[in-house]
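Readers outside the structure-tokenisation community will struggle with the description of the input data as it stands. I therefore recommend that a typical entry be quoted early in the introduction. An entry of this sort, consisting of the sequence and the corresponding backbone structure tokens, reads as follows:
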Amino acid sequence: MQGLANKVCLITGAGSGLGRASALALAGSGSRLAVADINAESAQETVSMIDSSGGQGMAIHVDVSDSTSVQLMVEAVESAYGGIDILVNNAGVVGELKPLHEVSEESWDFVQSVDMKGVFLCSKFTIPGMLKRGKGVIINVASVSGFIASKTGVEYTAAKHGVTGLTKQTAYDYGHLGIRAVGIGPGVIETPLTAEWTCEGGPFHELTTQAPAGRYGLASDVAKLVCFLASDDADFIHGHTIPIDGGSVIR
């Protein structure tokens, strides 16, 4: 990919799953990584993997739902690396997987605070530095649940629809100022978060196996798309959230 060497990339939720795979792929393209996660030990494990492959990374503990925590994270990265070129808003959680009238208020608030507010806060505190430098890329990891209703539950579906809207508005507001905002809509990807879904008989088994690709996605599939969207090769893509789901939402 063009233009990734020596770029500074901040990825939230990078202690495992899609975030870790994306961090490793970007590091392999020559980028310098800031690996952020609420689990500091997992973040350090990702950095150790980056370091062992000859890359450069730093681990940061963050709670993306907390304004002070996010602000301190951004300040730490900017102090260590001089700025942030690429922000990947990947941190996310799922809710209770129940119908709306059975969902607790606590579950609703928790999912919104991480999946929606977290994207808002990380973008809010990263954008000023990008504006000063006149350039930047923000990649928001949404979901196919940002396009359709599904068995992922009302909290998650509502939050991810919000992320696709936030991505559009960020592109609209900042595209002319040098900041490119795009989104990714993964289908069911095999990660620790989805282990109970990807087994045979799981809630998405039939939907996934009957889709054109006929398989669950891999974290590496998403990582490749992250690298492309972060690169100069994707310079003409603004505001859209791109499905990567094996074709499951085309029906």
Summary: The chain has one domain: 8-244.
